[in-house]
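I have been asked to look over a protein record a colleague put together. What it holds is a sequence and that sequence's fold in token form. Please read both lines and tell me whether the tokens look consistent with the sequence. I do not need a full report, just your reasoning and any doubts. This is what I was given:
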Amino acid sequence: MSNNFKKNIIWQKHSITRVKREKKNAHKSITIWFTGLSGSGKSSIANFLDKTLFKNGINSYLLDGDNVRSGLCSDLSFSVVDREENIRRIGEVAKIMLDAGIIVLVSVISPYEYQREMICKMLGRKNFLEIFVDTPISICESRDPKKLYKRARIGKIPDFTGVQSEYEIPQNPDAILNGTDVLEDNSKKLIKILHDRSIIPFSRSN
């Protein structure tokens, strides 16, 4: 956006603040960012956690990478530049949802450290939980529900993360989960983290 256009944009202050929304919700908002290889179990874990939070009266929402690609980011390719823009847009949506007092779950490969750091800075460190779903690529590839690895191996998908393109392992994630563990067990670990950080008022789900 050019500076000329920016001059015509004035931020609208809301009467209802994030703090007021969090008080009404009886929990705080935060973004939980699930990163890992395709097929690692990111979406399955995030979806299970979302159901658990919902069942316990928590306002949460899951932003899944494929779903976002189907709408908000449908104009983007898988080039390096467009992948970065995809991550940026998801971060901006998460930022708005934080202000709405919602616990935002994001499931997206986000393979590069600088991408995840960009989102952390955008949202603020206290608003960002980085969850690394550390599942061996052999297992991810054996699952391959979308047949992406198979297509990448024969050259039909260029620059596929884990095959032709590198995945940079998070250096200091807030939690490391194994995508082969029971979903409920992984969810319990995250519930405990949220409770320990005073985000939600309970440490065990009903």
